[in-house]
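Hi C.,

You asked whether I'd gotten around to modeling the 74-residue construct. I have! Everything is below, sequence then structure, no commentary in between.
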Amino acid sequence: PKDVEAKRKEYLAWGVSLVLIADPDARYVDVFDSAGNYERVDASVEMYSPAIIPDLPLPLRAMFAELNIPEELM
């Protein structure tokens, strides 16, 4: 967790406008933007678009649903 936090801060310091950190076990995505906004979005959300990049649709439910598919079926 410390390393992830350090990387997040470093990316934002270098001018990256959006940082997404996914937790596949807990099935959520932490969203950080360059304006200092933070949001946690869980897998119950069908489609998510960050406010800073509204044309970037992320199919969260579908992404996390793939974790339920046994490897031999993929």
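If it helps when you're writing up: The chain has a mean pLDDT of 91.

Thanks,
B.
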